């Protein structure tokens, strides 16, 4: 066990805790697909005020996208007493560690270890720390990676072999029909490997989506007055498939809004009609 932390690591932790820089010198475009209007970030926040759940689909390596997430979360907290942050980046079995960090009981370095934090956790740390400062909940929404891996190798039936005490760590999955749009999208993304992988890899994807959707709805039922901002890779939410589809299956009357955020260095050449079906709002960063 190490008795000290190298100064470089301490510096990186301190930098991760700092809020992202202002956006006024950054380049991004926000587009509302229903109206065709270009929006400011403040206008986007106004349109999100009535939403129960906001699903923010990101590209994990988009640094400007992470800054926009933080600014969006911060602005929502300025006008709402409770905004729960739900995250694909934490798995259900680390919820206790997340709660302990939010309560000030453990350090950020311990959260990184116990929470199995992603390699790019510094991109999300400002949002988690803002939640901590404002006494907000953070939901570790995803299924434990070991179970997703197990399903991809052994199939959904392998979940039945787990101890009953593990049941709260994953959601039930309903296998879709062969003409399912999400299955077609998944196979297209896998390319020539789709056939050789077999269906269990897609079933692991469904397990992630179903578990995240169930986690979001549990948080909503626990506090009907909270607004939920869910952060996820945009494959899980684009075209209102994946986690978004699972949310709609489970509770149709929710006011659910989707955002798709991705880098587009050739914004001037953007054909918006090709992206209309992605989400309610599209954010292009460059």
CATH architectural designation of the domain at 39-142 and 210-285: 3-Layer(aba) Sandwich
CATH topology category name of the domain at 39-142 and 210-285: Rossmann fold
How much is the radius of gyration in Å?
19 Å
Low-confidence residue ranges: 1-17
Query: What portion of residues belong to β-strands?
Result: 15-25%
Number of strands: 8
Q: Which strands sit side by side, in order, in the main sheet?
A: 2-1-8-7-3-6-4-5
- Tally of helical runs: 11
Helix-strand pattern: HEEHEHEHHHEHHHHEHEE
The largest β sheet comes out as: 8 strands, mixed
Between the first and last Cα atoms, what is the distance in angstroms?
43 Å
Pairing-aware structural class of the strands and helices? alpha/beta
Domain Haem-binding uptake Tiki superfamily ChaN: 44-247
Protein name: Putative iron-regulated protein
């Amino acid at each position: 066990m190490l008795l000290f932390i190298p100064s470089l690591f301490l510096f990186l932790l301190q930098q991760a805790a700092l809020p992202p820089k202002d956006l006024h010198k950054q380049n991004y475009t926000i587009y509302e697909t229903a109206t065709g209007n270009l929006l400011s970030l403040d206008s986007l926040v106004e349109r999100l005020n009535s939403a129960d759940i906001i699903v923010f689909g990101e590209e994990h390596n988009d640094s400007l996208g992470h800054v926009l997430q933080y600014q969006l979360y911060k602005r929502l907290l300025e006008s709402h007493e409770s905004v729960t942050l739900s995250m694909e980046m934490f798995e259900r079995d680390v919820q206790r560690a997340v709660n302990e960090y939010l309560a000030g009981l453990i350090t950020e370095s311990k959260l990184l270890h116990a929470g199995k934090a992603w390699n790019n956790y510094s991109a999300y740390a400002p949002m988690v720390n803002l939640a901590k400062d404002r006494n907000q909940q953070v939901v570790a929404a995803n299924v434990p990676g070991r179970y997703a891996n197990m399903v991809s190798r052994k199939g959904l039936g392998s979940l039945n072999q787990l101890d009953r005490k593990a049941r709260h760590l994953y959601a039930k999955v309903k296998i879709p029909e062969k003409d399912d749009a999400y299955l077609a999208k998944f196979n297209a993304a896998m390319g020539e490997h789709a056939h050789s992988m077999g269906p269990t890899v897609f079933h692991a994807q469904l397990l992630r989506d179903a578990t995240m959707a169930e986690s979001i709805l549990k948080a909503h039922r626990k506090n009907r007055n909270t607004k939920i901002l869910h952060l996820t890779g945009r494959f899980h939410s684009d075209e209102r498939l994946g986690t978004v589809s699972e949310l709609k299956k489970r509770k149709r009357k929710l006011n659910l809004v989707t955002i798709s955020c991705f880098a587009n260095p050739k914004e001037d050449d953007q054909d918006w009609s090709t992206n209309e079906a992605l989400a309610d709002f599209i954010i292009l960063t460059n």
